[in-house]
Specification:
mainly alpha, 2 domains, 16 helices, elongated
Amino acid sequence: MLPMSAWQGLAVALGIGLLVGVERERSKGDGERRATAGIRTFALVALAGAVAQMLGGIALAVVGAFVALAALASWRWTRTRDPGLTTEAAMVVVFLLGVLAMREIVLAAALGVVVTVLLAAKTRMHRFVRHVLSEQELHDGLLLAAGAAVVLPLLPDRTVDPWQVLNPRQLWILALLVMGINAAGHVALRMFGTRTGLLVTGVAGGFVSSTATIASLGMRARRNPAIRLASASAGVLSNLSTVIQLAIILGAFAPALLLRLAWPLAAAGVAVLVFALVSGWRSRGETMPEAASLVGRAFEPKHALLFVAVVATVMTISAAAHARWGHAALEWTMAFSGLADVHAAAATAAQLVAVGRVGADEVGVAVLLAFATNSLMKVVLAFVTGGRGYGLRLLPGVAAMVAAFTAGLAFG
């Protein structure tokens, strides 16, 4: 009697065949132009793969060869009216997924869904590649992929400075994140329109790096002055992600410190939301330009590298100051560390509280200083990347957030 896992594998294989087969059945047409493989063929091919896997190597080789020959015959029959190989390639993939279902049920089921989605998205994908994606955007996408797949593995994953803070691979990952946020914002503009796309970029990018998101939005605002206010609102909103991440980090390392800073964090988050709502209300009558009319490429590599250079410089100076004065100057070193990354500074403070080096009440001011200097860094980058118009529009929201944090710390 077959074990339960074998029955489950057969069921998943049949499900994959039926799922892909339904999509192919709807796509194969009628009459003389009707394709050769549909729902029954794909279901049988998937089951054949599963059964062949149960029978062993010889059965796998024989059935695999038969499926390959069947796919070749299907292509020869339809090549004059449909020179593509999509259905034939799908037959081979479904056979392999049937084999995989007997070993890795969850992976096979997930891949079956992915294959079906790819097949069903044919029209949208073709339209996107041929009519929506520009040559410059394609070039930028390839450049980003090369940076991740080619350059990143070649960089050493170790620190190269006396203070043990500059890791070439981590710095390059930061550059890729900046370029990726820019590219994601570009896609969001295309998908959701200008106003909503910018807000999506702000909130989502803030979870990666609020500082990088503000810089990226600033670059976009400099190229397109008509979206300065919307970009500034999205930049301020990215700080909400910073506040949420700070709460998570503090709670993970030192729950007592999170309780001490709960009111300041809540006040800062409310200030960000209020500013975003007021800014959105003020700009409700403004006509946003169409996303297609916005000039510029998906990202500027030189701007991303400049941003990383600034962060690396601040990290080095901060580490040198900490090595020189140590915990005796906790507040000042935390303040300088916040210029580069408030989350790292907060994690350091939380770790000191967790091991009993300092109390939760003592470190509150140090976290405030890190939060304030990090906010200052964001404003400076806003002026540098987006110009005076962008920086002045972002400044009140960031200032209100820091003021709210300070008030929460003082009176909470």
